[in-house]
Write a structure and sequence with these properties.
Layout (H helix, E strand, L loop, with lengths): L1 H29 L12 H43 L9 H10 L11 E6 L2 E4 L5 H23 L6 H22 L16 H13 L3 H4 L16 E2 L5 H10 L15 H13 L14 E2 L12 H7 L1
Antiparallel strand pairs: 1-2, 3-4
Length: 316
Amino acid sequence: MNNKLKRVTVAALLSLSTFAAFAQDKAEAEKTFMSDPINNPLFPVYVIGLLIIIVIALIVVTGISMIRVINVLAEQAERERAAKLGVAYKPRQGWWSRFSRQMNDSIPLEDESTIELDHNFDGIKELDNHLPPWWKWLFYATAVWAVVYMVVYHVSDSYPLMIQEYDTEVADAAEQIQKLKASQPQEAIDESALTFTADAAVIGKGKEVFNTMNCGSCHRPDGGGNAIGPNLTDEFWIHGGDIKQVFSTIKNGAVDKGMPAWGKSLSPADVRNVAFFVMSLQGTNPANPKAPQGEKFVAPALPKAANDTTTVQAAL
């Protein structure tokens, strides 16, 4: 008996240790780099990558510094050479200055007299500057692009226009909606045969939709009404208090009074559920309800069964 108890105890301890190891491995796997960067297996990779980036940055900075030193030494040598020859030193322009002058077709200040016009007003002179080459190239590019666009979109119809793209996307969206509706068939609701029953399941679902769609912002969560929405707990209704009329109001809305048509975003079953929940609020007497609006609704009396005159006549 003792041996059997020992075996059971050992098996239980092994199971607990295995479960603990599995839980620890899972916890380790769920750790992110930011939560524990030091013990993360990718920590060496990140460190090496950071060091490589630092080395590259140092190489770039050193290279730029070397180039600047070389340029300073070259400029100093040219100054000394010009001084030995007895000529004025003219600094050499950098590649960016040369590129900028070419792109703008600019004239140095000392040469502006070559493009000066005869117009002179109050000491203000006019220069015959030309359009910058980059501006003319951009203009030529836009002209070529206009021709290509015209041919591609309006002559060959190789690509659709924006309105055609919009129509295609709308058609694709409608097709996707149809597929989604086909994959999720909705419960059909016959409005003409709709009758209210105190079904707790249906009313509970309607309450969930009522709260999800934020209907309480206009009618209050308890249905007591506020500045926008009317009171749903009294006997007065603006659009009728029969279950069919309540269903129609929720489905089609009342745009002039700020009531959206929920039938566009809710399924018929959801509209039915909300209508049942609204009907269940009758007589709940919330605190500080809104004053009645509309007309008092009185449910029509059920037709009485006709008397069986055949039996009476037979008795006579």
